[in-house]
Specification:
Family (chain A): Belongs to the bacterial solute-binding protein 5 family.
InterPro entries (chain A): Peptide/Ni-bd (IPR030678), SBP_5 (IPR039424), SBP_5_dom (IPR000914)
Strand content of chain A: 15-25%
Helix content of chain A: 25-40%
Strand content of chain B: under 5%
Protein name (chain A): ABC transporter substrate-binding protein
Number of helices of chain B: 14
Radius of gyration of chain B: 24 Å
Distance between the termini of chain A: 34 Å
CATH superfamily of one domain in chain B: MetI-like
CATH architecture of one domain in chain B: Orthogonal Bundle
GO molecular function, one term (chain A): peptide transmembrane transporter activity
Order of helices and strands of chain B: HHHHHHHHHHHHHH
Structural class of chain A: alpha+beta
Subcellular location (chain A): Periplasm
Low-confidence stretches of chain B: none
Mean pLDDT of chain B: 86
Radius of gyration of chain A: 25 Å
Number of strands of chain A: 21
Largest interface: A-B, 67 and 67 residues
Low-confidence stretches of chain A: 1-21
Oligomer: heterodimer
Number of helices of chain A: 17
Chain lengths: 531, 335
């Protein structure tokens, strides 16, 4: 048996290597199957990696490895004085991909841009319900149907977005996946053939790679787009080998069955680092884990009580126990990699003695509270239960007895929103578009009370600052407003800010030029592999 | 025989309806709903939530939802996945060949090793062979599949590098999936080495999936053989001077096989359950993994349709076992 398998394996390997020499192939062990291939329909990062970052482009793009915006399909743009008109000049001669299922007859123009957005915005658009129950999650979630008044074609290569109100993060929003630009010609052809749903199964765009085939739950194949407007990619073939188990991904990397993979188990990182053929770069993730007090309920309505509890909890101990060090303590609600991060903010120090005194001064004795712990592992908090146990022990030391509660994930999300929620709820957030507004207003603004604002915290001063920043187009000015807002946040302490986790990306040393992305995307444009 | 068949098939109808109700109700009993699970941390406003639920038809009374689901089923419509927007039946048949291929290999391993091991253990009752087989069976039966799979990967793929880590075939091979069975498709393709690659990918997952059925079959065969070996007719056969091989192989084994065949039939359910974990470990694109993902996403149509289809397969296999049972044991037919 053993010699038979050895023979089989050896034969397969020899043959495999023999056929591999001809083309440069990069295999990425991805963590899950994409939900579909129309990025505007979905919200998962896995889907974006597989569909939008490979096949499509957007009007503006995030710079590789940063949250800054750079020209994409639009080579330039103008914003009107009042911040409500955005006019984009499209790059000329951008070709859509030629595949075995579609041959384009024209290059990119304003019609493609209008088609890509209007299908999401207008319920009477023929493509609005091309798949049953299409809810255009991101576009609706970000309020695009209310925000965008009209999109007009000025000429073939000029398109103008008119907004109902000024919205500073709008440009960053257009770099997000749901704003990927599709080919109207391809869509028309599908419609004519009565195969509309193919748009979600065989994507076709202008991006660096073109779609070849998808075998559900197993493998997605792409090849380099020879007509890509930034030039052909260094690799010829890109393969996503879908491997859901993190330990198995690690084994596959060691066996060189794939050359790069995301989300290793914290426990595997050391052994991967010690392998001489591998490297394990890391970066702080664009995320935050927090515990939100219900600031509308006594005694958590008192700032000094919240501050005292924050000082009673040893964050470093949580990071050591849960992340084995692969995270940094958080002091602000936005991560350090984000622009406007205020490093001058001083965190509440870990000081149980002082915390005890502060509670006493506030007249709080024998406090018993609930700590809500998520039932699932999230990138910003790998083990909420363990973290809650450590908090429970810390709080015990200052005379606060804590009970840990948890619910099934869907129910947890629902119940933790309730305005009359009892106790402090642990949760977190991963940034969507690199704009501070996506953390500060989304999670802490007055409009989000009863929703994303799990602290039910509506502070006039804070809210005025973030609302003003939202309608200011000058980034330096916005940054100042956000810095002030972070000061107010720390002073009023609606949350215990817990951590920003570190993201590891193990890879073979032969992989060149891979940039870790602060937004958590896995992009393979410009990546090369040494032979 | 005809009456026997008709009565067996007739039982399937209420079973089918019962399973469809359970499958329909089960996923809805779980807290959370598809809209919320898709949104994750992002809060969906109550109005939007209601609008999407309406769009999906989940705001109607449960009885109405069930009846329209049943009506669809009768017309062969198993619904459309909320997430991938593809037909449930289409997804099922894309993925099912992978599960079937793996389960088939596993059951072949389990039967080919389990039955002889059980027979020998019974014949050599109390010997070191008997004790080690039964010890191994107990260990195999109690083995957590997840751990066992990872252990084999680390040993055979990691340390010894004899087998590939996961997947169905080396990614360097690429050919159309005519049947969905990788062994057949790779043979039909003109790519050299594809079949061996597919075969080498099948070894570890088949062993892992075969472990529990193998243990059960070996134990069942042993106890059935022991019982039969003590019967009068076996003693008579021995007394007639028949060879030991003939006594064990023909007189004893044929009778002992009746409960064993039932056990093998029942293992199909165990295989389906085991496939869920095995497929997750070995990134095997089958229906087990598909079902688990869909439960997490509260993809109602997929979970209820998938459960129903799996139940139908198990029902079908049990029917075949019942018929086989009748072939092996004429008394069952008569009864």
């Amino acid at each position: 048996m053993n010699s038979l398998t050895r023979l089989l394996a050896a034969t397969a390997l020899t043959l495999a290597l023999g056929s591999a020499a001809s083309a440069k192939t990069l295999v990425y062990c991805s963590e899950a199957s994409p939900e579909g291939f129309d990025p505007a329909l979905y919200t998962a990062g896995t889907t974006f990696d597989a569909a939008s970052r490979t096949v499509y482009n957007r009007l503006v793009e995030f710079k590789h490895g940063s949250t800054e915006i750079e020209p994409g399909l639009a080579e330039s743009w103008e914003i009107s004085e009042d911040g409500t008109e955005y006019t984009f000049k499209l790059r000329p001669d951008v070709k859509f991909q030629t595949t075995d299922f579609f041959t384009p007859t024209r290059t990119l123009n304003a019609d493609d841009v209008i088609f890509s957005f209007e299908r999401q915005l207008k319920s009477d658009n023929p493509w609005n319900q091309y798949v049953a129950g299409a809810s255009w999650e991101y576009s609706s979630g970000m309020g695009f149907p209310d925000l965008i008044k009209s999109i007009e074609k000025v000429d073939d290569l000029t398109v103008r977005f008119t907004l109902n109100r000024p919205e500073a993060p709008f440009l960053a929003d257009l770099a997000m996946d749901f704003a990927s630009i599709m080919s109207k010609e391809y869509a028309d052809q599908l419609k004519e053939a009565g195969n509309e749903s193919t748009l979600n199964q065989q994507p076709l765009g202008t991006g660096p790679f073109q779609f070849v085939a998808y075998q559900p739950d197993a493998v997605i194949r792409y090849k380099a787009n020879p007509d890509y407007f930034k030039g052909k990619q260094p690799i010829d073939d890109l393969i996503f080998a879908i491997t859901t188990d993190a330990s198995v991904r690690a084994q596959k990397l060691k066996a060189n069955e794939c050359q790069i993979f995301p989300y290793p188990n914290a426990a595997d990182v050391e052994s991967l680092k010690s392998d001489p053929n591998l490297e394990v770069p890391s970066q702080e993730g664009l995320n935050v884990a927090y515990m939100a007090y219900n600031t509308t309920q006594a005694p958590f309505d008192k700032v000094e009580v919240r501050k005292a509890l924050n000082m009673a909890i040893n964050k470093q101990a949580i990071i050591d126990a849960v992340f084995q060090g692969a995270a940094v303590p958080a002091k602000n609600p936005i991560p350090p990699t984000m622009w406007s991060y205020n490093d001058a903010v001083e965190d509440d120090p870990y000081d149980p003695e002082k915390a005890k005194q502060m509670l006493k001064d506030a007249g709080v004795e024998n406090l018993s509270m609930k700590i809500w712990a998520m039932p699932v592992s999230r990138p910003y908090m790998l083990n909420a239960r363990r973290a809650a146990e450590l908090m429970q022990a810390d709080l015990q030391k200052v005379g606060v007895s804590a009970e840990i509660v948890s619910y099934e994930w869907g129910e947890y999300l629902e119940k933790s929103k309730a305005k009359d929620r009892d106790g402090a709820a642990m949760l977190g957030w991963t940034g969507d578009n690199g704009d501070p507004d996506n953390f500060l207003d989304t999670l802490l603004g007055c409009d989000a009370v009863g929703g994303n604002n799990r602290a039910q915290w509506c502070d006039e001063e804070f809210d005025a600052l973030v609302k003003k920043a939202k309608t200011t187009s000058d980034q330096a000015e916005r940054a100042k407003l956000y810095e002030q807002a972070q000061m107010v946040f720390k002073e009023k302490a609606p949350w215990l800010t817990i951590d920003h986790s570190t993201v590891f990306m193990p890879m073979q040393k032969s992989v060149k030029n891979f940039h870790q992305d602060p937004l958590g995307y896995h992009r393979f444009d410009d990546v090369d592999i040494a032979e | 025989m005809q009456r026997f068949l008709i009565s067996r098939v007739a039982v399937l109808i209420p079973t089918f309806i019962g399973v469809s109700i359970i499958a329909f109700a089960f996923i809805r009993l779980l807290p959370g709903d598809p809209v919320q699970m898709l949104a994750g941390e992002r809060v969906v406003s109550p109005e939007r939530h209601a609008a999407i639920m309406h769009q999906l038809g989940f705001d109607r009374p449960l009885v109405m939802q069930y009846l329209s689901y049943l009506w669809g089923l009768l017309q062969g419509d198993f619904g459309t996945s909320i997430v991938t927007k593809r037909g449930v039946l289409q997804e099922f048949f894309t993925l099912f060949p992978a599960t079937l291929e793996l389960s088939f290999c596993a059951i072949v391993i389990a039967v080919c090793l389990g039955v002889p091991a059980g027979v020998f253990a019974a014949v050599k009752r109390g010997s070191w062979f008997d004790q080690s087989v039964m010890g191994a069976a107990l260990v195999g039966y109690s083995m957590p599949i997840f751990w066992w799979g990872l252990l084999l990967i680390i040993l055979f793929s990691g340390v010894l590098q004899w087998t590939p880590v996961s997947g169905r075939i080396s990614l360097l091979y690429y050919f159309p999936q005519a049947t969905g069975f990788m062994l057949i498709d790779s043979l039909m393709s003109d790519q050299k080495g594809a079949f061996l690659s597919a075969l080498s990918h099948l070894i570890l997952p088949s062993i892992v999936l075969a472990t529990i059925p193998l243990a059960v079959i070996a134990r069942q065969t042993r106890s059935a053989m022991l019982e039969v070996l003590g019967e009068d007719y076996v003693r008579t056969a021995k007394a007639k001077g028949l060879s030991r091989g003939r006594v064990v192989g023909v007189h004893a084994l044929r009778n002992a096989l009746i409960p064993v065949v039932t056990t093998i039939g029942l293992q199909v359910g165990v295989l389906m359950a085991g496939a869920i974990l095995t497929e997750s470990i070995f990134s095997w694109p089958g229906i087990g993994k598909w079902m688990v993902d869909s439960v997490f996403r509260r993809d109602y149509p997929v979970v209820q349709g998938g459960l129903l289809l799996i139940a139908m397969i198990i029902m079908f296999v049990n029917l075949v076992v019942d018929i086989l049972y009748g072939v092996i044991n004429p008394r069952v037919r008569a009864g």
